[in-house]
Amino acid sequence: MTDDQLKLARRYLAQAKRVVIFTGAGISAESGVPTFRGSDATWKGMPAAVASSLGLLEQDLTTAWEWFDYRRTLLKAVSPNAAHVAVAQAESCFAEFLVVTQNVDGLHQKAGSKHIIELHGNIWRGRGLRTGKRYDLPETPLPTLPPRGDADEPIRPDVVLFGEMLPAGAFEEAELAAMRCDACLVIGTSGVVYPAALIPLAARDAGAAVIEVNPEATDLTPHVTLSLRGRAGDIVPQLFEA
Ligand code: APR
């Protein structure tokens, strides 16, 4: 990232009243959370995408939970980094400020962000298989797998699995905010997963300044106003410094 690019990005943000922050796994990379396409993670010989699939959940709920509880145990040990903290602290500086995240790790909440849409759910919650009722599941490792809710109802992870639709309303609410914003900051996403990746494009189409932060070029790079090369933990705090 050059000084000129930094100045320009700061000006876009300083002029903005309504801001959308769109994040992916890359914002949590410096907290020690592996990204999806940065690692060929396998678990018990299963690719992560299979372990996180609707197919496995329907076939074998207990094994699906073993995978998610393993991920929860990893996530329990990590903390928000400087990028999460800078985003949380910037929230009160704007008339409207919304975090739209693809991450299920809960690190934005842990950093203090208040207005968040979790497009892919949250690994610290469960959902009743029969009733759809949501349950907070902070404890890890979970005492029993699968965890059970009211009337002994089996609970599933409240995350969007491969092969599943996004939670009703979440995408629509995020898209509306993107179409209304003046600036959209895209942090740490490869932009290859849809419909999530439509959010920054909706902001661009509505005339907002779209600023990308990523050490590498992505599928979104040709479509953004400004693409800043570098790590989120280094760049994001500088963007909101002013
Ligand atoms: N700072 C900023 N960006 C980073 C950093 C960092 N320190 N480290 C890596 N990145 C970038 C990578 O260059 C990559 O472009 O983060 C991006 C991570 O991309 P993916 O692993 O594809 O993750 P994401 O875009 O969040 O994937 C979207 O796919 O697997 C599903 O549901 C899952 O939410 C996830 C979705």
Written description of the protein model:
- Helix 6 (82-90) packs parallel to helix 10 and helix 8 (170-180) runs parallel beside helix 9.
- The protein is built from 10 helices and 11 strands.
- It has helices at 3-15, 26-29, 48-51, 54-59, 61-76, 82-90, 107-111, 170-180, 198-205, 232-240; strands at 18-23, 42-43, 46-47, 96-101, 116-118, 121-128, 134-136, 155-159, 183-187, 209-214, 226-229.
- The strands form 3 sheets. A 6-stranded parallel sheet has the order 5-4-1-9-10-11, with helices on both faces. It has a 3-stranded antiparallel sheet with strand order 7-6-8, covered by helices on one side. A two-stranded antiparallel ribbon has the order 2-3.
- 35% of the residues lie in helices and 21% in strands.
- It starts with a helix and ends with a helix.
- The model has no long low-confidence stretch (mean pLDDT 95).
- The longest helix is centred in the N-terminal third of the chain and has 16 residues, at 61-76.
- By secondary structure, it is an alpha/beta fold.
- The protein folds into 2 domains: 3-32 and 79-120 and 165-239, Rossmann fold (3-Layer(aba) Sandwich), CATH 3.40.50; 42-76 and 127-159.
- It is elongated, with a radius of gyration of 18 Å.
- The protein binds adenosine-5-diphosphoribose.
- Adenosine-5-diphosphoribose (APR) is lined by residues 24-26, 29-30, 35-38, 102, 120, 188-190, 192-193, 213-216, 218, 231-232.
In short:
The protein has helices at 3-15, 26-29, 48-51, 54-59, 61-76, 82-90, 107-111, 170-180, 198-205, 232-240; strands at 18-23, 42-43, 46-47, 96-101, 116-118, 121-128, 134-136, 155-159, 183-187, 209-214, 226-229. It is of the alpha/beta class. It has 2 domains: 3-32 and 79-120 and 165-239, TPP-binding domain (Rossmann fold, 3-Layer(aba) Sandwich); 42-76 and 127-159.
